[in-house]
Amino acid sequence: MLTGKRIVITGGTGSLGSVLVRRLLSGTVGTPAAITVFSRDEAKQHTMRLSYGRLETATDEVIYHNFERLLRFRIGDVRDLASVSSVLRDADIVFNAAALKQVPTCEYFPSEAVKTNIGGPENIVRAIRDGGLPVETVVGISTDKAVKPVNVMGMTKAIQERIFIEGNLECPGTRFVCARYGNVLASRGSVIPLFHHQIRLGGPVTITDFEMTRFLLSLEEAVDTVLAALADGQPGETYIPRVPSARVVDVAQALIGERPIETIVTGIRPGEKVHEILVSEEEAQLTVPRGDYYVILPRLPELRPVEPAGPILEREYSSRDDVMSTDDVATFLARHKLLPDHELVLEEDMLR
């Protein structure tokens, strides 16, 4: 699928970016001509470069030699149009993973979130349009918080989606699609590493709300969603994974097990939702199942087929629906080696 393609990953040193890079280097989706990690964090780029340079075992041979040939690092900021225009000049495929994504941070610094989460996508579209760049596809990485947004992070990501969808009209030679998913298991800043830390200290384990639910998705599954949108998405479509959900308190209880550890309620953080929603009831009218995914057809009539190909979704897709039982949650976490009996490896630390 990506053989011979020149790929740029904005925010390529982040949680999704680092796992996406590893997948691309593995050769399972073809051998690209080049992979450029574009970000403003020189320390993370340095760490990633060294991490690949230390891969020397036989099982790492393919990735190691691909790294030598393919992987490039470029300092730059998605907020800066000239920087974006320069890095996209030789790109065939762009994955926009650059974002301010911590909900409380975006609440306290909303203008900074606007600059990255809205200004960045605008710069990508402008660079392609004004420079006449021959970029084939742009995949925008979005979030459940863009649905019925109640926080700055979600509001800016919702506008990112609209910018990329409309980009299909601004840049008719480029296909813009999006991938939207919820919180990722064992990613830095997520709840499972926090619970592990609190359990190691003997508690208490902190729950923001006993009714809170979340979808359970690994970063590998997030990458699968991004690559599915790249492979099969039509201009303006948004891909959403169909994954299980659970109450956060059940996740905590499964991790605690028989340990005498107290659970306390601390209250919802600024901008936080009780339930994740990946498809709203308004979007459901344009949403169709496609394999392991739901696909939201574009809102703009110029991009939308006359009739949806398949049955539409009958209601919103929320983490409050079809919640797993406590036993099923424990089984799920054990299968993914996320219980405290296992050594927890953060997804983005797997290369280090």
Low-confidence stretches: 345-352
Corresponding CATH superfamily:
NAD(P)-binding Rossmann-like Domain
Rg computed from alpha carbons, rounded to a whole number of angstroms: 20 Å
User: What is the topology, as strand order, of the major beta sheet?
Assistant: 3-2-1-4-5-6-9-14-13
Secondary-structure-derived class: alpha/beta
Mean pLDDT: 90
- What is the string of helix and strand elements? EHEHHEHEHHHEHEHEEHEEHEEHEEEH
Work out the strand percent: 15-25%
What characterizes the major β-sheet?
A: 9 strands, mixed
Q: What is the CATH class?
A: Alpha Beta
What separation lies between the terminal Cα atoms? 28 Å
Our count of helices gives: 13
CATH topology assignment:
Rossmann fold
Total number of domains:
1
CATH architecture annotation name: 3-Layer(aba) Sandwich
| Strand elements, count | 15
The level of helicity is 25-40%
Categorize the overall geometry: globular
